Amino acid sequence: MNLENTKVQMKKGVLEYCILSIIARGEVYASDILATLKEAKMLVVEGTLYPLLTRLKNAGLLSYEWKESTSGPPRKYYQLTEQGKFFVDELHKTWKDLNYAVELTTKKQ
Predict the structure, then answer these.
(1) Cβ neighbours of 63 (radius 10 Å)
(2) Strand pairing report for 28-29 and 72-80
(3) 55-81 pLDDT, tens per residue?
(4) What is the 3-state secondary structure (H, E, C) of 37-49?
(5) Alpha-carbon distance 2 to 49, whole Å?
(6) What is the pTM of this model?
């Protein structure tokens, strides 16, 4: 069994939840999402983030708005739709339950 592969799969499993949670704080630019993930030591590259954002948008969880930038071309800012807000709230409840179960089953006696 490959330990690194298992670690990567665990991170991938929570990546969507983390991204939606970041966006739930308010509209955000993709590079800000990447910076927040990097700060949390979840290293994600643009080639992973953009397809995921597109998938979440196509699922009706995100919308975006183009805004002018003072330092270059317009930027795409993402925000949650009403459906996205409900979705992330439900994920948060599930995360709390899952976190409790993991803590309970992995604690040392």
Answers:
(1) 15
(2) antiparallel
(3) 999 999 999 999 998 888 999 999 999
(4) HHHCCCCCCHHHH
(5) 25
(6) 0.88
Q: How many domains does the chain have?
A: 1
Q: What are 39-55's pLDDT values in tens digits?
A: 999 889 899 999 999 99
Distance CA(100)–CA(109), nearest Å, equals 16
In a 3-state reduction of DSSP, which class is residue 107? coil
DSSP-derived pairing of the beta strands 62-69 and 72-80: antiparallel
DSSP state of 26: S
Q: Domain limits at 46?
A: 3-106
3-state secondary structure of 1: coil
CATH number of the structural domain spanning residue 70: 1.10.10.10
72 φ, ψ (degrees, to nearest 5): 145, -155
